[in-house]
Structure formats: C-alpha cells, structure tokens
Protein: Lead
Organism: Halorhodospira halochloris
Amino acid sequence: MAEQSLELVIEGMTCASCVARVERMATRLPGVHSASVSLPTERATISFDPAQVDSEQIIEAISKGGFKATVRRDQERSMPDSARELGSLWRDLWLAVALTIPLVAVAMGPMLLPGLDSAMQQVLAERSWLWVEWLLVTPVLLWAGRRFFARGAPALLRLHPEMNSLVMLGTSAAWLYSTTVLLWPELFPEQARGVYFEAVGVIITLVLVGRYFELKSRGQASQAIRRLLELQVPSARVIRQGREEEVEVKRLEPGDQVVVRPGERLPVDGRIIEGSSYIDESMVTGEPVPVARGVGDEVVGGTVNRSGSFTFAASRVGADTVLGQIVRMVEGAQASKPPIQSLVDRVAGWVVWAAIALAIGAALSWSLLGFGIDHALVVAAAVLLIACPCAMGLATPMAIMVGTGRGAEQGILFRRGAAFQASAGVNVVVMDKTGTLTVGRPVLTDIEPADGFMADDVLVQAAAVEGRSEHPLAEAIVAAAHARNLGVAEVADFAAVPGYGVQGKVDGEEIVVGARRFLNQLQIMVPRGLHERAAELAKQGRTPLFVAIGGRVAALLAVADPIKEGSKPAINALHSMGLRTVMLTGDDRETADAVARQIGITEVKADVLPADKEAVIGEMQSKGLRVAFVGDGINDAPALARADVGVAVGTGTDVAIEAGDVVIMAGDPRSMARGLSLARRTFRTIRQNLFWAFVYNITLMPVAAGVLYPLWGVLLSPMMAAAAMSLSSLLVVSNSLRLRRVELVR
C-alpha cells in the first residue's frame, strides 16, 4: 500500500524538548517512516504505511505523551488558533503582576527605603508580614502559574521533563522551602531561615511575560498566511437557470458561471467567458500593476477586479484554487525542517535532563562544601530556570515561518525548509534562457526564401508542420502565418526531435523545420548565402531556423524572443551577491552570446539539448560547485531536481510545479534574485539564532551553578535566571521578525 501523510495539530508543546518527544513517540510506532514537528505552527506532518499503522494509533501514541493531537481539518490553517491561550495568559499575567508588585514591596521595601521597616512593624509583626507574603504568592504560583504544573508534572512523571517541568521544579522548591521555614523555623539554622516568596512571584511573572510576548510574536510571524486567508470571500454571485443568485463559496462547483463587479474580489479560479477588466493580481505575483484580462483569459480567486464587470466559468474551487495551493505550499515549508534542525532537536531532547542533573549535582556540591541549604536551593533553582531550551526550539522554525511568509508576499513560494540551508551554500546560478530570461513568446522577425521559393508558400508549409509542435518557436511561426491570413495545410507522418526540429509530410512532400544541426544530421546542404545570413541574424540575438522542402533548403527564418525587462537588474543583483551566473540554451553560440551580452552574463552554454541540461548541472556539481538552476518547471524538471536548489518559474496560475524547491509566481527574473537573497538572509538568521541559543545555555548554565562564586562572589539569582530565560526566547523571535523588513532586490 502507498505511503500516506497525516497532518496533526499538536497542543501543549512549549519547547524544543517537546518537539523531540512528539517526533520520537511517533517514529517509534512500526510503519511510521518520518515525523516532522514545528513548534511555532503547532503542526506535525507524519508519513506512515497504512498497512502497519493507522492515524488513530498515531494520535493515541502522541496523546499518551501528554499532548493533545487532532487531525488537521482541510479548512484549518497552520498558525495555531492561539487567541484563547493568549487571552488566558493575559488574565493570568495581570493576576501575577497585581499580586507580585505588593509582594515585592513587602519583601524588599524595608531594604530599599529607610524607615519603612519600623513603620511596617507598627502595623504587623515581622512574622505576620511573612504570612502576608505567603498569601500573596500562593495564588501566583498555584493559579497564575497553574499551566506549569498542569503540563510540567505529567511530563516529569513520564520521565520526559520539559520547560514547564523546570519552572515547576524551581518555583515549587523555593515555595516549599520558604513555607517550611515559615511553619517550622526551628528546623533550620539561624542563617538559613530566609524565605524566597518574592523570588517565586517574580519568576512566575517573568516567565508569563516572556510566554505572552512569544505567543504574540508568533502571531506576527504568521501574518502573511493570515493575510492570504483573508483574501477568501464568503459568497459569490452565480448565474443559475438564467437568474443571478448569491451562494456560499464552499457550494461553488467547476463550471458555475460567476459574475464579478468592479472592486470585488474573485471567489475562485476560472476563465473569462464574457466581458473584460483590469485585475490586481499582486497577491499571486507580487506585481502591483493591474493586468488586462479578457475573454479566454484565466483569472485567480482572491485577486481584485479593478474596473469592468465580467463573467467567468469556475475551474478550480475550494482547496484546489491557486490561493489554496499557495497557502498549502507555504504551510508545508513552515512545517518542514532544514537538516540543521534535526541536530538541534536531538540536542534539545537532552538539555532538560542535563539541567536537572546539573541542578542536583550543584546543590549537593555546595552543601558538601559547607554552604547552607538556602545557598544550595538558590543554585538549583537558578540552573533549572535558566536551562529551558525554548530558544533552541524557536531558532529555526521562527525564521523559516517569517521567511516563507515574506516570500509569499513577493510571489516567491518556498516548497520546503531545506531550500533555505541549501541556498546559503550556492555559488553558481544556472538559468535556462527561454521563458526565464526572455519572455518565452518569440515572434517571427525574418523570412528569406531561397532561389525558386516564395515566402508565403514556404511559411504555409512550415506553419503546417510546426502547428503540431508545442515549442515556443513553433508558436511564433504559426502566429505569423495566421497574421498573414494564410491557410493551414494537412500534415502526415509528423515527428519532433527535441533540440533539433520537426518534420512531416504536406501534400506528400517532406517538410523539415529546424536548426542547422538538424539539416546536417539529415544531410541537407545549406546554401552559403543563407548560412552567412543566419550567422548575422544570430549575432543580433535572433534564432535562425531553416525550412527544407523535398530535401532542399527553401528558406531561412529568424525568430526573436524579447528579453524580459527585469533580466539585467536580476543578473546584476546576483553578481552583487558574489554568485556566478551561467545561461543555458539550445540556441547556437552566436545567438546565445548576443543575448548574454545584453543582460550581462559572461558564461554561456549553447547548443544544449533538453535532455542534456541535467548532465550539465551534474558536471558542475562534480567540480565541487553548489548549483541553483532556474527553469520553467516543466521541460526543465530533471535539471531542477538535480540542482542543489531548483527555482521553478511559474506563470501566475501554475503553482503546482513539483520539481522546484522555490516557485516564482510572476516569472520576473528579479524575483529569482529576491528569492535567493531572502533564502540566504533567512538561513543567516537561523545561524544567528542557533548561535545565541547554544551560547546562552553553554555559558549561563555553569554560571547559574555557581562556578564564578569562588572567584568573584557572583551568584545568579533565580529571578535573574527566569528573566534571562524569557529574554533569550524573545531575542530569537525578535531577530526572526527582522526578516519582515529586510531590503530585497527592486
């Protein structure tokens, strides 16, 4: 049975160790091939063999780990619906702040304000004020901080501790110690009778503050997806039985005739059957200028009708629309992981255990060295609080989340997270000429008949044969024949030879249309005059083709494919990034060099057959080069798959290009440069985040354990540890959000 993919929404994850645990619990099941879990999106993508395991068993296994796993519905989106959790956090945070402020004032006020101690003693005895502290802190710990117990305790009992477990252990240990001192002070020596109620309150409050802003920041990171979803309209006007009626979009079916008026957003994809308009397609292509669309043209759901009214026949509805495919593609990239993240997840899975072991070891060591139990408690609590691997868990997925969202806004779709890491190592960009650097809609510019032949007669027969071909050059010849109102002849025995040309029989006579190498292969001689003229046209950037009728050369045709406006700026941008650029084309050397000169490319590989493009990429890779290949995603599929990074150039409605790691919706060459630049910036951000996350844990865990105390008397308080833990996550999130403002190629 074929492998299936299951998408789950996972609730209850708080740090990288949770991610590692969910993946481990899923992959332990027989028949589960892989599991990829994303902390910011709260999603898991699991590949499994349905003959060995089913979705219910997978969900049950994850649920036993203390998480809530549910199958993601088709309409449900990747960014977690965190409004409820955010609201709950906000209420708990206000309670914690409201009680912690007077708690800190009571506990620390006498040390900060001279005379306050004696004034307080006149109101209540010192021991009574300690009970006031207890009354203030207990609701903070047990109610505002209940999430740490609800999630941390079960995880600890299952021997899979995580962030909540560490906070729970640190704060509850301090609270229990302080409460015991308050109830039975005689059990402790005089110097160990201090209480830490204010530390517990401040720690809970700081962790809640960090968690709240982290959740808010995650929401900002997913704004791009949210904006795409907001483009979906709830209803549409449909013509049924000759009448116009309004129906819900989810009830639309392919073939329905949909009416759109000026200023309205299109509900689904389709093809215009009546009327015309200018349509704002910026949400698909990233291009701000409205595009003229008329009868026969494709239109995309979510785009905006700027002027006239028109009617279109629905072709793709629901999740099959371009908008639906874009959202799925961006979600898939956000849920996938670059190779570097797998190592991070494995390390993070052990950080919590290392923290617990270090906390116990440090506490015992200080006790054996003769320090009091209060000193040991402070050290243990600080280690537990500072060691949370939250920053590790957010470092990669947050950057990918923001990077993919920013790309989607620009019409650049990243299909998988690995593209970010692969792009960072690319040092050469190979581009197919036709459709990538040129418009891809060639026009016939010249027709020069040989002696004894008439231009129109040759064009009729050439167009008849080329009419059976799908090559862009063939379309130019057929269009020229239609423009001259020439008739269409019948063709027999048609054959196309990729990279060479086409041949067939018209009125019983053999017709050949193709490149010089095709005629050479067929042993058809080209007159010297036409050969020299072909070389001249090639130097002007035109593609020369020969037409042979009955074994004799009948005419020289020249076809030109206009260079895209953005090609030269794109090449300049790639060069400014330190990248080599290579143009790949099936054209002859003279034509290829002429085009390359106009756009600034110095390396050209000409006369390359479609089947040989993959081999060219492989040859470069064998020399140690890391190659990005840019092509149309259909004819170039093998080369796109072979390249380290495949960039597929779409058409604005062609999203489902399977071979590319990156899809450029608008076909603008500048988007190619923008995409590579954004991918590199994103991976640079990932490395910065991971560097900070690892340095933070490696450096501060020993400091919290007290290694600096014998030398300089420096001891990290649990409150400072909690603040550092919260700030580390916020730093990673804030650094990732900078990608939303990064300058891209204009």
